[in-house]
Write a structure and sequence with these properties.
- The protein has one domain.
- About 85% of the residues lie in helices and about 0% in strands.
- The protein contains four helices and no strands.
- It is elongated, with a radius of gyration of 16 Å.
- The two termini are about 25 Å apart.
Length: about 140
C-alpha cells in the first residue's frame, strides 16, 4: 500500500471503531458480556491501528493537510476539527482507565467511567470520519 492510501485506511479504521463501540454498547445493554468484550476489544484494536497509521501518515510522509473550503463550510470544518482534536487528546486516559478497570474485574467503577468514555470515544471516531470526508471527498 502506498502512503497516499493511508487517509482512506484511517477513515475505515475510525468507522470500524464506531461500529464496534455501538455494537458493544448494545450487547452490554442486553447482558451479552462476551459479545460486549469482543466488540470493545475490536474498538480498541481498530482505534490503536488508526492512531499508528495516522501518526505514520502525518509525521513520516505527509505533514499537515489544509482544508480548502471557505465560508460557513470552513467554519463548520474548523469547529468539528477543534472538538475532535481536543476530545481525541482527552479520551486516551479515559480509555486506558476504563479498560484497566474491566481487566481487573472492577465492574462498578468500570461502568461509572464507561458512561463518560463511550460517548467521547464514539464522538471522536465519528468526527474522524467526518473530517476525512470533508478533507478528501468534498
Amino acid at each position: 500500500m502506498d502512503y497516499t492510501q493511508l487517509p482512506h485506511l484511517n477513515a475505515l479504521l475510525n468507522s470500524l471503531s464506531a461500529a464496534f463501540l455501538v455494537a458493544g454498547f448494545l450487547f452490554i445493554r442486553r447482558g451479552r458480556i462476551s459479545a460486549h468484550r469482543a466488540m470493545m476489544t475490536g474498538a480498541l484494536i481498530s482505534s490503536t491501528l488508526f492512531l499508528i497509521s495516522y501518526l505514520i501518515y502525518h509525521f513520516v510522509f505527509h505533514g499537515l493537510t489544509r482544508f480548502t473550503g471557505q465560508g460557513l463550510l470552513r467554519a463548520t470544518y474548523l469547529l468539528i476539527l477543534f472538538t475532535h482534536t481536543v476530545l481525541a487528546a482527552v479520551i486516551l486516559p479515559f480509555i486506558l482507565v476504563t479498560v484497566t478497570r474491566a481487566l481487573h474485574r472492577d465492574f462498578t467503577r468500570h461502568r461509572r467511567i464507561a458512561r463518560w468514555t463511550f460517548p467521547m470515544w464514539l464522538y471522536v471516531s465519528i468526527t474522524g470520519v467526518i473530517v476525512y470526508l470533508m478533507l478528501y471527498q468534498l
